[in-house]
């Protein structure tokens, strides 16, 4: 297709919305990858296409926040029961086509940050209509920008997960990248400069109506918990469906800058060139980023890593971002550092003189899980035991599945003992049991302990979760070309 040609071809009414949107995304991704300098026009028709809006509503309805209303007080259930989804989407499409759609301010909600620091994170809750339009925008824009994103970022990207980032760190730490710039961007989502961000969006998008819609969401404003209206001159409010994609678009500047030497023909493109740099006392480095959390692994010295810190700060400054002086630090991998809930450390293998990079569970997520277990098993709790066990199993097994690729077996056993003790304490207080009654209730005649059960639901220990090494993998293309392409 010619440069800047409209990407939406002939529509086929007999194709389901899911297949139609998938075909559209595959084409956009393929064209964006084939021509990195291409700017896409006529995308707005894809945003308000009925199939796109249906898919967008389904994604919004399937999110955990579907029951949370925006400033208009409507939830997804309200739309389904009282308005009707077809009429709701038809009216929204008419507004988009007529150019009368205007995003409403997001409703601010403050939630405590994990770790018990006492600090809060500000979330912005858009209305259901705004969430649907944001989801439609994401369906259209994500395949275009994904084609240009560097493979070193993993957060909020399709087919990628936190374990892939940890596997990268493990791989490079094993191969001599022992100095670590453990960076934290101060209030990243609240501070991104709108002008710099929109310039990045315009590099791939030419359609003025799409650009105006993205900018309208950035400028929609916030309704605080006290009822005050605040304008948003910077940032992408956390909580919006489009915000993670926009943050990745902005932070791709950092990815491109630090990974430019790894491009074909550049100074770090081959192992020979990297070895040559090191022989001359020059460093090599590798970036691993998950949304606004990132580390730079350095094969060099402390001074090299300090220089990279200044370089990173200079790259982030035009975006309106700065590194947190309190949380950004330079560490050697032998001292260990925390990333995405894991504690990564280069240390000697017990009983030998060999050193390896190990991945443990960090202290903060363990404290956080224990706090959730305590909240579910309070002595004075009157919640029925079956509900407690069901929720405990959900929380602990979801947590264990995330961390099962770390050195976690001992931690799993310790948490199982902690959970069992909390349950027994709750039950002894509720039923006024002594230890003899507990043993009578939960042991066999031969003295073997039985699981704690209620109406067919049993407490399921997480120690049985298989602990395996997570290997680096080839990230699959989220939008593979069809066989007949």
Automatic annotation (TrEMBL):
Q: Does the keyword Chloroplast apply?
A: no
Pfam families given in the database record: GIIM (PF08388), RVT_1 (PF00078)
- Which branch of life, at top level? Bacteria
For molecular function, the Gene Ontology terms on record are: RNA-directed DNA polymerase activity
Q: What class of enzyme is it?
A: transferase
- Enzyme Commission code(s) on record: 2.7.7.49
This one is known as: Group II intron reverse transcriptase/maturase
Q: Which residues form the Reverse transcriptase domain?
A: 92-344
InterPro entries per record: DNA/RNA_pol_sf, Group_II_RT_mat, GrpII_Intron_Splice-Mob/Def, Mat_intron_G2, RT_dom
Taxonomic source organism:
Micromonospora zingiberis
Keyword Nucleotidyltransferase on this protein? yes
Concerning NCBIfam families, the annotation shows: group_II_RT_mat
Listed A to Z, the keywords are: Nucleotidyltransferase, RNA-directed DNA polymerase, Transferase
């Amino acid at each position: 297709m010619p440069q800047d040609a409209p990407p939406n071809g002939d529509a086929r009414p007999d194709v389901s919305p899911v297949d139609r949107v998938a075909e559209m995304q595959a084409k956009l991704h393929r064209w964006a990858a084939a021509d990195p300098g291409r700017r896409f026009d006529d995308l707005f028709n894809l945003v308000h296409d009925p199939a796109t809006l249906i898919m967008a509503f389904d994604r919004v309805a399937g999110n955990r926040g579907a029951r949370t209303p925006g400033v208009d007080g409507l939830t997804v259930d309200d739309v389904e029961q009282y308005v009707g989804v077809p009429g709701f989407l038809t009216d929204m499409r008419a507004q988009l086509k007529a150019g009368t759609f205007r995003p409403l301010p997001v409703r601010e909600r403050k939630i405590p940050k994990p770790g018990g620091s006492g600090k809060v994170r500000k979330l912005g809750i858009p209305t259901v209509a705004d969430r649907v339009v944001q989801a439609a925008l994401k369906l259209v824009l994500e395949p275009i920008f994904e084609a240009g994103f560097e493979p070193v970022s993993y957060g909020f990207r399709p087919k990628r997960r936190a374990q892939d980032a940890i596997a990268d760190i493990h791989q490079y730490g094993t191969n001599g990248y022992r100095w670590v710039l453990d960076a934290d961007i101060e209030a990243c989502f609240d501070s991104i400069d709108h002008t710099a961000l929109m310039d990045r969006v315009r590099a791939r998008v030419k359609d003025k109506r799409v650009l105006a819609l993205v900018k309208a969401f950035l400028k929609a404003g916030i309704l605080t918990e006290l009822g005050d209206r605040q304008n948003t001159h910077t940032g992408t409010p956390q909580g919006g469906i489009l915000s993670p994609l926009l943050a990745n678009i902005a932070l791709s500047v950092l990815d491109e800058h630090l990974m430019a030497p790894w491009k074909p023909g550049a100074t770090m493109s081959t192992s020979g060139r990297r070895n040559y740099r090191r022989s001359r006392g020059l460093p090599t480095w590798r970036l691993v980023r998950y949304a606004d959390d990132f580390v730079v692994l350095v094969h060099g010295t402390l001074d090299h890593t300090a220089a990279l810190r200044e370089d990173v700060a200079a790259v982030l400054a035009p975006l309106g971002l700065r590194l947190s002086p309190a949380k950004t630090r330079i560490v050697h991998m032998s001292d260990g550092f925390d990333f995405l809930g894991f504690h990564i450390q280069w240390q000697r293998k017990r009983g030998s003189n060999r050193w390896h990079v190990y991945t443990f569970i960090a202290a903060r997520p363990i404290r956080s899980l224990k706090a959730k277990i305590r909240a579910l098993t309070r002595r004075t709790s009157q919640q029925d035991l079956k509900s407690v066990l069901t929720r405990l199993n959900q929380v602990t097994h979801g947590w264990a599945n995330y961390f099962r690729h770390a050195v976690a077996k001992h931690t799993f056993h310790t948490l199982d003992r902690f959970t069992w003790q909390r349950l027994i304490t709750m039950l002894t207080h509720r039923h006024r049991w002594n230890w003899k009654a507990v043993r009578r209730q939960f042991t066999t005649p031969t003295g073997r302990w039985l699981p704690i059960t209620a109406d067919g639901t049993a407490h399921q220990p997480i120690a049985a979760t298989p602990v395996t090494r997570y290997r680096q993998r080839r990230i699959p293309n989220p939008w593979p070309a069809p066989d007949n392409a």
